[in-house]
Amino acid sequence: MYKYLITxxxxxxxxxxxxxxxxxYLSDAIKENINxxxxxxxxxxxxxxxxxxxxxxDSLVKYKLVGTKxxxxxxxxxxxxNLKLNRIDKPIFIITYASWLVIPIGEIAALNLLAKExxxxxxxxxxxxxxxxxxxxxxxxxxxxxxxCYANENYKNDSHIIATIKHxxxxxxxxxxxxxxxIVSIKHFNNKVKPxxxxxxxxxxxxxxFSKNINESLVNSSSNTTKITAN
Length: 231
What we know:
alpha/beta, 6-stranded mixed sheet
């Protein structure tokens, strides 16, 4: 009986250790949960229930995606060498776009201000789901305080990861990732700035929108790091 208990305890300790060491990546979490999410969201949108559709997306993010690790696929940079996220030793803010997407007035200026404001503690990355040639005209509108990058599922390496994240979460979508590469927040940004809004007002609206998310994510990131250190 005693030997049985010792064996059982040893087995349980191995199981706990294995679970603690297991890493779930964003793309895997999406694949595991996307079918259930799609079925429910399709029903919601067929009923034109926008509120329910948003609630389902928020639930997917909160309960299934936040806390996973952002896949470390090879991100190509427009002005510099390819980027590996694991080599960045501070929190990362990623905003995704497509070259054909009309970015609301004031949004780029707001991001430039925030990247300058947080450049010592947050790495800003603008990630276009495109090829290099398609972002040439827009890349120079962003400041040197952020990395301007691109990724496309037609490229051989990591194509399945890129396709999974791009087509499931859409764009513009932001990701805030802590220094351990854990996802702290995922947000859809639906900028409601009207085309004729004065430029200063438009920049302020976008700045406040992004700043709120970044500051809240920094607080949550610090809280999570403190918990890990304490344990």
